[in-house]
Specification:
Layout: E1 3-7, E2 14-18, E3 23-27, E4 33-35, E5 47-52, E6 57-63, E7 67-70, E8 78-80, E9 86-88, E10 98-105, E11 108-120, E12 127-128, E13 133-136, E14 138-139, E15 147-151, E16 163-164, E17 167-170, E18 179-187, E19 190-198, E20 200-201, E21 211-214, E22 220-223, H1 233-238, E23 241-250, E24 257-263, E25 269-272, E26 283-284, E27 292-296, E28 303-311, E29 315-325, E30 327-329, E31 347-354, E32 361-368, H2 377-380, H3 389-397, H4 402-411, H5 417-426, H6 431-440, H7 442-446, E33 479-488, E34 496-503, E35 506-511, E36 514-517, E37 526-533
Parallel strand pairs: 2-11, 3-11, 12-20, 21-29
Antiparallel strand pairs: 1-2, 4-9, 5-6, 5-10, 6-7, 8-9, 10-11, 11-14, 13-17, 15-16, 15-18, 18-19, 22-27, 23-24, 23-28, 24-25, 25-26, 28-29, 30-31, 31-32, 33-34, 33-37, 34-35, 35-36
């Protein structure tokens, strides 16, 4: 860089003017640009003036005594950085002129000129999934030789491939290409960038597995469908959106039924198709969510749902399968005399068989003691439960089926015979039956010596022998309280139960897995009391 020296005859001031052409600065309309002052002029008492245009209108200045001041009658979007560089944001079309920076130190003045040049990416319309995309980074002609590098949008699960050149073409676009594209321009040791947003119109992938839901009459389910990116409805309309629909194909008869139709206009909404199931509700669409909301669950919603958007060039659609699980618990007559306790765990399971050729479905029913549901392999790996065989055996000896005993041990986490017994009794769904079973198995309860860990220590045959004395249940006799169960809660259907048992003339409280001595057991607050005959 060379400087020319001018000396004013009327004063001792010297003006140093750069003899080079204006420095090239690239910027994008709407973006931000920084024009650096000559950093070689380094002094705490420097005066900095920034001028705009050929007529050198003062825009902003820095005075060591007065601070930063705006030019007279200037309303601008310019500011100074901490180093007194000029910052313009947002860049406007009128800013693409020559800018001058004058710096004064004592009697010397340093002047440097800059010129803003355009870098732009012409806007492209929204692109349909699978179509081609072309982008161009245009740089206004200048004395610089710019080099362009493209940076694609940052989308999860998509490779970040950087490409060079003023133009870029992409075939078979996907969601990976939706978002903000950036072209970085390198020139004369400086860097500028321009950005543009590309909308790729597509629907999010369908769920890989069916949606499973249960049959309680009060439950509802959402059938998912959405746009793969955050695209305004105005953009979709500009791309030729003509409508959309939801349809349903039951697995039982394979006859497609229309559910909803898309109304396109100032208000975009799903409207219920006349004559369709009244349980499907229409709603206004304000974002990318196209789902069916709060569909009441029943046997009739089993099947395949199809969500589609229709454009002039193509139709996008996704399919979602819904399965309804149905289980019936047999709780029959109130008189449980002579009834096996395993009946409390009988379930009516409905199975579906689908013909691969016709896709018609047939439903069969069977009785089982446990409902088995499919579990994804990644969740099932190394998750096989380890059950306490001794606890399972003790439950089986009390008359419960093997599968029910294994289920009780599994859900109580191998906490011992007490926990599993409580679980079994709690899932009989009938207090009368539970009481009947207890009093019909008093001999078994008397032979159970429960330790603090909740596990039975009466494993040997000798320990299971009944105590001496008569076993009659009628006639005169004397009984003593040896255990009682207390309930804490608003009703018997909810809350918490604890048990007190008298062992060796000492009352012990059993509260889940916590076992300790009870000095003042609340005998008057019992929910269920246990007595045994006193042998004299």
């Amino acid at each position: 860089m060379t400087w020319s020296l001018y000396e004013h005859s009327s004063s001792d001031r010297c003006v140093l003017l750069s003899s080079e052409s204006p420095i090239v600065i690239y910027a994008q309309i709407g973006g931000t640009v920084t024009i650096p002052r000559d950093s070689s002029v380094n002094a705490a008492n420097v005066y900095v003036n920034w001028f705009h245009g050929s007529d050198k209108r003062l825009v902003i200045s820095r005075n060591p005594q007065g601070g930063i001041q705006m030019g007279k009658d200037v309303k601008t979007h310019a500011s100074l950085s901490s180093n007194y560089d000029l910052q313009i944001s947002p860049v406007q079309d009128s800013d693409f002129e020559v800018w001058h920076c004058e710096q004064h130190v004592l009697t010397s003045t340093y002047v440097k000129a800059y010129k803003l040049y355009h870098v732009t990416i012409p806007k492209v319309p929204a692109v349909m999934f699978g179509d081609s995309l072309s982008l161009e980074c245009k740089t206004e002609s200048s004395s610089a030789t710019p080099r362009v590098k493209w940076i694609p949008p940052e989308n999860s699960g998509c490779p970040q491939i950087k490409r060079h050149g003023n133009t870029i073409s992409v075939k078979d676009v996907s969601r990976c290409h939706s978002g903000v594209w950036t072209c970085k321009v390198n020139y004369d040791g400086r860097e500028a960038e321009a950005t543009t947003t590309v909308f790729v119109i597509d629907l999010s992938p369908s769920p890989p597995d069916p949606i499973y839901t249960s049959l309680p009459s009060s439950s509802t389910v959402n059938i998912p469908c959405s746009l793969s990116s955050n695209i305004p409805w105005s953009v979709l309309n500009e791309t030729g959106l003509q409508g959309g629909s939801w349809s349903f194909t039951p697995l039982s008869d394979q006859n497609q039924q229309p559910l909803l139709s898309l109304s396109v206009g100032p208000e975009v909404r799903w409207d219920v198709t006349p004559g369709t199931d009244s349980r499907v509700k229409g709603r206004e669409l304000k974002d990318t969510d196209l789902s069916i909301h709060n569909l009441p669950v029943s046997e009739k919603i089993r099947g395949e749902y199809s969500c589609s958007l229709k454009f002039k060039s193509k139709t996008l659609s996704r399919k979602v399968k819904v399965e309804v699980l149905q289980a019936f618990l047999y709780v029959g007559q109130r008189n449980w005399s002579g009834i096996n306790p395993s009946d409390a765990f009988r379930f009516l399971v409905e199975e579906k068989i689908v013909c691969q050729q016709s896709q018609k479905a047939k439903y069969t029913q069977r009785v089982d003691y446990i409902v088995q549901l499919p579990v994804p392999m990644d969740q099932a790996t190394n998750m096989a439960p380890v059950l306490d065989d001794s606890t399972v055996s003790q439950l089986c000896e009390m008359g419960f089926p093997l599968e029910a005993c294994r289920k009780a041990v599994y859900y109580t986490g191998n906490t011992g015979i007490d926990g599993t017994m409580n679980w079994v009794m709690g899932h009989m769904e009938d207090p009368e039956r539970a009481v009947d079973w207890i009093f019909s198995h008093l001999d078994d309860l008397e032979s159970m010596d429960v330790s603090e860990g909740g596990r039975s220590e009466g494993g040997s045959e000798a320990s299971r022998e009944p105590p001496p004395g008569p076993r009659v249940r009628d006639g005169p006799g004397k009984y003593e309280l040896f255990a009682f169960i207390s309930h804490m809660g608003s009703s018997t259907m909810c809350g918490h139960y604890v048990c007190h048992i008298k062992k060796d003339q000492q009352w012990v409280i059993f509260n889940d897995q916590k076992v300790c001595a009870s000095e003042k057991p609340p005998k008057d607050l019992g929910y269920l009391y246990f007595y045994r005959r006193v042998v004299e």
